[in-house]
Design goal:
The complex is a heterodimer. Chain A is an all-alpha fold. Chain A contains four helices and no strands. Chain B has five helices and no strands. The chains are: A mainly alpha, B mainly alpha. At the A-B interface, helix 1, helix 2 and helix 3 of A face helix 1, helix 4 and helix 5 of B.
Chain lengths: 134, 111
């Protein structure tokens, strides 16, 4: 309990580490509950991206007697690319939300939501076209 | 984790540290799943796949072995109402997902 009496002044806050000072500058620590909620939301997005990766890997591994090679590879790449972009996007989202909360600003709109929706629609369209034209 | 206190030592009725630690635990499970499916690429794509397996398994292991510390940091942060955002863990986890996707695409296109 060495730090329990630390004043929460904004003048010279205790060092938060170089990365934090640089990526989360200014403002003050939000309610710990908000920080943890932001972290859990980030993790939910990461798991979504991992599920997409798993889907892409599974399509490449298991569907060689179902899909033609270009379709199989195309679908796998779409899913892997989406998982990749969502991983990066979820970190960006986490940073932007954390920044907004530090500065008591309104939360930013999630750009990864239209990304996920759009790419999901593209993947579905690829499968649909394949099924109809096979 | 010692659960003999009713709401942990932090006294938060919303059990935020527990929920957050469990969320990390679910992420470990997702990473383990991904690493296991990667092994199904071994017959077609050969030994380089072990690198993909190693990256996802290492990420899972890194989260797993820091779980206890993660719980106590957050629990303490809640008790004193001041908690630093865990920027390192977030960036590393996101990087792992990004790298796995990129390496996976390279393998699919090369094979």
């Amino acid at each position: 309990m060495t730090n329990s009496d630390q004043p929460a002044n904004a003048g010279t806050p205790p060092s938060r580490g170089k990365i934090a000072e640089r990526l989360l500058p200014g403002g003050e620590e939000p309610d710990p509950r908000f920080t943890l909620a932001n972290e859990r939301t980030f993790l939910a997005w990461i798991r979504t991206s991992l599920a997409l990766l798993a889907g892409g890997i599974a399509i490449e591994a298991f569907t060689s007697d179902l899909f033609l090679e270009p379709v199989r590879k195309g679908l796998a790449v779409v899913l892997l690319l989406l998982g990749m972009l969502l991983s990066a996007g979820s970190a960006v989202r986490w940073l932007r939300v954390e920044r907004s909360m530090r500065n008591k600003a309104p939360l930013p709109l999630p750009l990864i939501v239209p990304l996920l929706a759009g790419a999901g629609a593209v993947a579905a369209a690829v499968v649909l076209i394949f099924i109809l034209w096979r | 984790m010692d659960s003999s206190h009713s709401a942990g030592s932090h006294g938060d009725p919303g059990l935020q540290p527990e929920r957050t630690t469990l969320a990390w635990g679910r992420t470990v499970l997702a990473l383990v799943t991904v690493s296991a499916i990667f092994l199904r690429w071994l017959p077609r794509h050969g030994l380089p796949i072990l690198l993909l397996f190693a990256v996802s398994a290492a990420a899972a292991l890194a989260i797993y072995v820091t779980q206890r510390r993660r719980y106590s940091t957050r629990s303490r942060g809640l008790s004193r109402e001041k908690l630093d955002a865990d920027i390192t863990a977030v960036l590393w986890t996101a990087f792992a997902g990004f790298a796995l996707g990129g390496l996976g695409i390279a393998v699919v296109l090369a094979g």
